[in-house]
């Protein structure tokens, strides 16, 4: 994680972005020419880039990413790669219900894409990035999820109920055996 931040920060410091141009790399599901064994179309993920200009809100260039776009927007492409790497090892930040859209965008701009990455930030880094509240929420969420007390309590009660049911079933079987003995004895 620290290596990701260092690499991302270095890239930000050493690159020049085009003024008034915004780009975003993302994966899109694309239908291939193939047909699966079940007779349905086969889809695959492909990297796309969305390019917008500051003063033109109607023209959005959305196309498959190629080497030219990757070289033109290195910071955005690096952000995309870091996001994919983090998402492979954690819970995407955009699925964290305790953050609003602005907080999520703010974190993504800072190279934080998962709840786990946010929670692992050192205190000083969170303070420098002005995201202490968000980090504390992520830590609390993960702590609760790790030792999910409600689930543990439910599992404990379930085990108690299961043991009680088994004991009652054993008692019922014993009583039925006694009744059968009594019925047999009374016939003699």
Structural class: alpha+beta
Gross geometry: elongated
Q: Give the strand order, joined by hyphens, for the main sheet.
A: 1-2-3
N-to-C CA distance = 83 Å
The average pLDDT score comes to 83
Helix content: 55-70%
Tally of discrete structural domains? 3
Q: What count of helical segments does DSSP give?
A: 8
Major sheet size, sense and barrel closure: 3 strands, antiparallel
Poorly predicted ranges: none
Number of strands: 3
Approximate strand percentage: 15-25%
Instruction: Please compute the radius of gyration using only Cα atoms.
Output: 29 Å
Q: SSE order, as H and E?
A: HEEEHHHHHHH
Brief synopsis:
By secondary structure, this protein is of the alpha+beta class.
What characteristics describe this protein?
188 residues; alpha+beta; 3 domains; three-stranded antiparallel beta sheet; elongated
What would your notes on this structure say?
The chain contains eight helices and three strands, in the order αβββααααααα. It has helices spanning 2-14, 67-72, 74-88, 101-109, 115-120, 123-128, 132-146, 149-187; strands at residues 21-35, 41-53, 56-64. It is elongated and about 105 Å long. The model has no long low-confidence stretch (mean pLDDT 83). Strand 1 and strand 2 (41-53) form a beta hairpin. The chain folds into three domains: 1-17 and 73-147, no CATH class; 26-64, no CATH class; 158-188. Helix 1 (2-14) runs antiparallel to helix 3 (74-88). A three-stranded antiparallel beta sheet has the order 1-2-3. With 188 residues, it is an alpha+beta fold.
